[in-house]
From TrEMBL:
Residues 102-167 form the YetF C-terminal domain. This is DUF421 domain-containing protein. The chain crosses the membrane at residues 27-45. It comes from the Bacteria. It comes from Lichenibacterium minor. One of its GO terms (cellular component) is plasma membrane. It is found in: Cell membrane.
Amino acid sequence: MGDWIYRNILAIDWHRSFNPHVALLDIVLRGTIIYLVLFAMLRVTRRHSGEMGTSDVLLIVLIADAVQNGMASDYHSVTEGLTLALTIFFWSWLLEWLPVRFPRLRPVLVPAPGLLVRDGRIDPRALRRDLMTEEDLMAQLRLQGVHDVAAVRRACVEANGQLSVQRRA
């Protein structure tokens, strides 16, 4: 019985667990390409990330499922999984660091603030561009204690997705 438990439950194939079956550079290359393409796709749509709605969460889950085979190929070892995770973390960190270190890259990597309200007037084109309704905007203004758009000098969707409001004097 003890021998059976060891062979079938406790025996660990360390070589199989840590020996990569796919070239690690292949994993890094796949992770890099897919990460950068997805970053560009999400950047082009000008979606801000401050607050995620149901459709945003669903989009992320479905994208993750759709690209996981392309990123992972057919890996089985811990080493391959960690290589892919480190690649994703690296690109995430780099794309946050680059606009801080090199301000000229900021317009390419970080969405510009979207001016939604100017001098008490809502800009309908800006709302459409940022995929917001007037009701969404008013809800965000109310959360900041503003109940009448006429009291707003400027309201912008910042790069982090949060709404910043300057009130009229």
